[in-house]
Amino acid sequence: MTFVVFLTVLILGIVLGLPIAWALIACGIALMLHLDYFNAQIIAQNMILGTDNFILLAIPFFILAGELMNRGGLSRRIIEVAMAAFGHVSGGLGYVAICASLIMASLSGSAIADSAALAAILIPMMKLGNYPEGSSGGLLAAGGVIAPVIPPSIALVVFGAIANVSISGLFMAAIVPGTLMALSLVLAWRFVSRGGGFQTLERKSRAEVLRALWVALPALVLPVVVIGGLRIGIFTPTEAAVIAAVYAMLVGAFVYGELTLRSFYEGLVEAGKTSAVVMFLIGTSMVSAWLITIANLPTQVIAFLEPFMDSPQMLVGMIVVLTLLLGMVLDFTPLSLILMPIVIPLGKAAGIDLVYFGVVFTIAGALGMLTPPVGNVLNVVAGVGKVRLDRIMVGVLPFLFAEIAVLALLVIFPQIVTLPLELLR
C-alpha cells in the first residue's frame, strides 16, 4: 500500500504539471500522512542534509567548467580539430560530430551544454552540405548523451554520493562503455549516410591538421589532467571539478583570449542557475529517499522482484527496461533521484557490483533524454539548430537503437565494465 501511495502521488503530480521537485515533496508529505508521521521540520532538515555533502560540490564546478569551455573557445577548437581530421570524408561532418561529442563529454559532463555547442556550430554546416536535417540533429543529440557517461560525469557523482561508492571507480568504469557508445554511433552513421551524396570539406594537409591539433592542445589536455589526476590519486573528484573550472577559465581568458569579464560573469550566472535547479532536486529527492527508507519500500520492492533476485542479470535487465520507459516521461536528473533510493538497495540485496550497476543505470537514464515526449536533448538540438522537432525524433531512432544495443551488451556481459576496472586496480 505504501508503494501505491508513493507512485500515485508522483504520477498525479506529473500529470498535473507540478515541477518535479515539488512533486517529490508532495510524495514525501503523502508518505508522512500515510505513516501518521507528519512533521514539517523533517522536510526542511532532510532537504538541507541531502545537499550538505562535500562530494556534491563537484556538480556546480563541473557545470561551471562546461559553461566556461563554451564561452572561452575550448569547445570550438575541439570541433575544428575533428573537422580537420574527418571533414574531407564522405559524410565526414557526422564523424566530426561523434568525435567532438566524445572529446567534449570528457570535459564537461553535461549533455545539454555539449549538444547545444555542437548543434550551434555543426548543424548550419551540415545543412549547407546537404545532410538530412533529421539525421544530423538526431546524431548530435545521440552524441550529446555520451556526456553523462564519460568522466567527469555529474550523474556518476550523484550516484556515488547516494550509493556511497567510489566516484573515482565509477569514472574509470565508465570509460569503456562511453567509448563503445561512440563506436556504435560511428557504425549507425555509416549505415545511415551511405550513398548520401554529401558535400565534403577540402582535405586538409598534414601540416594544417597538426596546426589545428596544436591550437586545440590546451583544451585537449584538460581530460588528461582530470582523469589522470583521479587515477593517480592526486586529487578527489570535487577537487578535480575545481581544477577543471579554473583551467577552463585560464585557457579561455589567457590562451584563446575569448573569455571576457562579461562572458565570465554570464557563465557564472548560468552555472549558478543550473546548479541551483540540480541541488534543489537533490534536496527534495532526499526527503522522499528518507521516507522511502522509513516506510521500508525497498524491502517491499525486493519482495515483489524476489523471483528475479537469484539472477542479477535478469534483475539489472528489468531495472534498465523500467528506467528506459520512465525516461520517456521524466527528465534524467529527477528520474535518477526518484529511482536511486529504490534500485540501489535492490542491487545490494542481489549482490550486484554497485560500480557496474551505477554505470549501466546512468546509461539507461541518459538514453531517456533521447525519447519523446520529454527528450530534453532533442528539444535543445531542435531549438539551437532550428530544425523541426518531429524530424529529429525520427532521425535519432537509428542512433538510439545503436546505443540501446550497447546497453544490452553491458547487461549480458558485465565483464565489459568490470574487467577493465580490475585491470586498472
TrEMBL record:
Keywords: Cell inner membrane, Cell membrane, Membrane, Transmembrane, Transmembrane helix, Transport. The chain crosses the membrane at residues 47-66, 78-98, 104-126, 138-163, 169-192, 213-234, 240-257, 277-295, 315-342, 354-372, 392-417. Residues 8-416 form the TRAP C4-dicarboxylate transport system permease DctM subunit domain. One of its GO terms (molecular function) is transmembrane transporter activity. GO terms for cellular component: plasma membrane. This is TRAP transporter large permease protein. Part of the tripartite ATP-independent periplasmic (TRAP) transport system. NCBIfam families: dctM (TIGR00786). Belongs to the TRAP transporter large permease family. It is found in: Cell inner membrane. Its main location: membrane. It comes from Salipiger profundus. Pfam families: DctM. It is a multi-pass membrane protein. The keyword Cell inner membrane applies.
